[in-house]
Design goal:
Distance between the termini of chain A: 37 Å
Low-confidence stretches of chain B: none
CATH superfamily of chain B: Folate-binding superfamily
CATH topology of the largest domain in chain A: FAD/NAD(P)-binding domain
CATH superfamily of the largest domain in chain A: FAD/NAD(P)-binding domain
Distance between the termini of chain B: 24 Å
Mean pLDDT of chain A: 96
Mean pLDDT of chain B: 97
CATH architecture of chain B: 2-Layer Sandwich
CATH architecture of the largest domain in chain A: 3-Layer(bba) Sandwich
Structural class of chain A: alpha/beta
Largest sheet of chain B: 4 strands, antiparallel
Number of domains of chain B: 1
Helix content of chain A: 25-40%
Strand content of chain B: 25-35%
Strand content of chain A: 25-35%
Oligomer: heterodimer
Helix content of chain B: under 10%
Strand order of the largest sheet of chain B: 3-4-5-6
Order of helices and strands of chain B: EEEHEEE
Shape of chain A: globular
Order of helices and strands of chain A: HEHEEHHEHEHEEHEEEEHEEEEHEEEHHH
Shape of chain B: elongated
Radius of gyration of chain A: 21 Å
CATH class of chain B: Alpha Beta
Chain lengths: ~425, ~80
């Protein structure tokens, strides 16, 4: 069914009892042309683009838990493309441009709100580094602007401009096209569109092993039995190391817990996404009114989706230094996602050491914003066996050649 | 909050410590190491889900390095060894 004002009216008059399921729950078939491991936004997007752009016939998405229940449902929903290196800008701005027309393409409202993403600087040195970053981004064609302290005050009046602020505000830079989108809707929109093109979405199906012959993957062992596959795409975020080990190789990736939390809902007080260079925190207000925020990683490897108290405390303290007015709010929920962090904070895309097995991993702390790109380029690699020009610099081989894309140092912003 | 058993100081709170990565052994001599082996040593990690061997430093304590075996799912510390 196509979602529209007419269908809403018709279903409304019928008491909302006749909405069809947004996607099927078919049984696992014994053979597919392409299998995607991981039913988050990225994996579902890959299946959608494989069916839509590359007309691949039989496609399955295997998800260990439920759709979008991993990092897709755990991030702080920020989208932006303000990166330092041209390779990164090509990749992340591709994703943002897809997001800008995704609601129409998928016939599913992803609630994209391009409210602007602000990065606050707290010293003359911060402002010099920001001027450098903004110059690089503008040369790369990204819509960033450098703002004075007065301009920041006009747009973020609740930020701490007090005389005794621990982190005085010297200015900021902003990407106006950045903002937030509804994370669940991105997964569900891709799932519904992929299902409509015949993709089998299999939930509660864990991949337990790879069937490899002469260096090429020909199938998978799963908790629902074996399945043979013409090609396999890995899109498992934090669990990429676990799957790589099953396929017999290692990745330059460490999995960490990244926390996020929300306050109780309040009336609109924060119209943009705000981030601070000093504390690493980022915050926005959801459409439900909750303040959604996070900051740095729990700095040791973890597969526990909760995070530990010292980091929670640091994140809350950092946020309150910048927005003291939020001090009286209660914290409603706190959680963590397991993020796959490569050494250079840039993703690893394309071929793997095993034939017919393709990677979409290493998005680390910033995968949500790149969902359409991760899916698009994984689909391209699976369908053609080769890189798209935009994904080529992000090949696993860069760790042997030394051609790293060091966004950890480059963009200088929390991801 | 982790309670980490420093082999020199005994159990101390997580904020006193810094994580220092998986133990790796530098291959050599340098002129005989291939790019692939060097990349493997520098960058490739096992990143285990479950028991994981890892270096820690008691940075805000005695300053010593040691090796923990820790479960990365439950965060239970299985053993702590002096180097």
């Amino acid at each position: 069914m196509r979602y529209s004002a007419t269908s809403l009216l018709r279903q409304g008059l019928a008491g909302h009892r006749a909405w069809p399921a947004a996607w099927r729950s078919p049984p696992l078939q014994p053979r597919y042309d392409a299998v995607i491991v991981g039913g988050g936004g990225h994996g579902l997007a890959a299946a959608y683009y494989l069916a839509k752009r590359h007309k691949v016939g039989r496609i399955a998405v295997l998800e260990r838990g439920w759709l979008g229940g991993g990092n897709t449902g755990r991030n702080t929903t920020i989208v932006r493309s303000n990166y330092f290196f041209p390779q990164s800008v090509a990749l992340y701005d591709f994703a943002l441009r897809q997001y800008e027309q995704l609601s129409e393409e998928l016939n599913y409202n992803i609630m994209l709100s391009q409210r602007g993403v602000f990065y606050i600087g707290h010293s003359d040195h911060d402002m010099e580094m920001m001027a450098r970053a903004v110059n690089a981004m503008q040369i790369n064609g990204i819509d960033t602007e450098l703002l004075s302290a007065e301009q920041v005050r006009a747009e973020l009046p609740l930020a701490n401009f007090g005389p005794d602020a621990r982190y005085p505000i010297h200015g900021a830079f902003v990407q106006r096209r950045g903002g937030i989108a509804r994370h669940d809707a991105v997964a569900w929109g891709y799932a519904r569109a992929a299902d409509g093109l015949g993709v089998d979405i299999i939930q509660n199906c864990e991949v337990t092993g790879f069937i490899i012959r002469s260096g090429k993957v020909i199938g998978l062992e799963t908790t629902r039995g074996p399945v043979s596959a013409g090609a396999v795409g890995l899109s498992p975020s934090g669990h990429c190391g676990v799957l790589a080990a099953k396929a017999g190789f290692r990745l330059p990736i460490t999995s960490y817990a990244l926390q996020a939390m929300v306050s109780e809902p309040i009336k609109p007080v924060l119209h943009a996404v705000a981030s601070s260079w000093a504390t690493g925190m980022y915050i926005s207000q959801s459409d439900k009114g909750e303040l959604v925020f996070g900051a740095g990683l729990d700095l040791y490897p973890s597969y526990a989706q909760r995070g530990n108290l010292p980091t929670t405390q640091t994140i809350v303290a950092g946020m309150l230094e910048i927005f003291p007015a939020f001090r009286r709010l209660k914290l409603l929920r706190q959680w963590a996602g397991i993020v796959d962090v490569p050494w250079d904070y840039s993703p690893i895309l394309g071929p793997s050491p095993v034939g017919n097995l393709y990677l979409n991993c290493g998005w680390g702390t910033g995968g949500f914003k790149a969902t359409p790109a991760g899916g698009y380029f994984l689909a391209h690699a699976i369908a053609t066996g080769a890189h798209h020009p935009i994904s080529a610099p992000f090949d696993l081989g860069r760790f042997a050649t030394g051609a790293l894309i060091d966004e950890a140092a480059g963009a200088g912003i929390t991801h | 909050m982790l309670l980490i058993p420093c082999p020199w100081c005994g159990p101390r709170a997580e904020p006193e410590f810094s994580y220092g990565g998986e133990p790796v052994i530098r291959p050599g001599p340098a002129e005989s190491v291939t790019d692939a082996d060097w990349a493997d040593y520098l960058y490739m990690r096992s990143n285990e889900k479950g028991a994981h061997r890892e270096n820690w430093c008691h940075t805000n304590g005695c300053g010593q390095w040691f090796t923990l075996t820790r479960d990365t799912v439950t965060h239970a510390i299985l053993s702590a060894e002096k180097p």
